[in-house]
Amino acid sequence: MKTWTALGQAVAVVGAILCSAGAFGEHADTCAVPGYLLFGDSSLDRAHAEVRKDNALQILALGGTSSTLPGPDGASFAYPARLEAALTRRLPGVKVTVTSVTKTRQTAKEMLTSIAQLLLDHKPSLVILQTGTFDAVRGTDPEEFRAALAEGVEKLQAGGADVVLVNMQYSPRTESIVAVGAYADGIRWVSREREVPVFDRLAIMRHWYDNGQFDLYKATKDLQMAKSVHDCLGRALAATIIDAARLQDRDGGSTRQ
Predict the structure, then answer these.
(1) Domain around 154
(2) Number of domains into which the chain is organized
(3) pTM, 2 dp
């Protein structure tokens, strides 16, 4: 599993959500994430409307290799599948489908070329857009990256889909090698401009590492740990979606009306 560095983040709000990782044999609090890393002010109105109207939630997850895990059953343990499982568990009676479309070594600008066809083929009410890693590795001009991402989000919204942006993974092995700060800033800027949530994978994984929940030095060589990390990411992302879409779930649900 490829992992990269995190942008340090100043925070003022304290809170936590537990996402049990018991399915993979981890301690119950392994997936704990501070609430300020999961919940914001942006809304997923189209996802909310689809659930209310059809008792269904069609999600398209776009990204690169960090959306995948190796092996013949890797897809079932990667975070898009774990997101589907978590949402299905927390939203009884709702038909949740998460379709993952991945392409390696793809910049944000290159992702633009396939958006129209993907919307036509899958008709999602919500798109999970994971980007930034390859642009950082390649050294794309940060302003070019930000502009391409803004254009992509605008196209997705114009095509009838809500968007959740997902930034890079954190790895203590590569944080001094790949400089991702400017790209993480660009993702955050686009999220504010287009009023879409950011799932701050960088800060979440950094939190897990700093608090001893996951030894991310081992994650690239320990497939079982990689599966647990993906499971936790899927559960945390489900919490973000449920809150932003103002859905009532069986674990207590969103309080937003």
Answers:
(1) 22-242
(2) 1
(3) 0.86
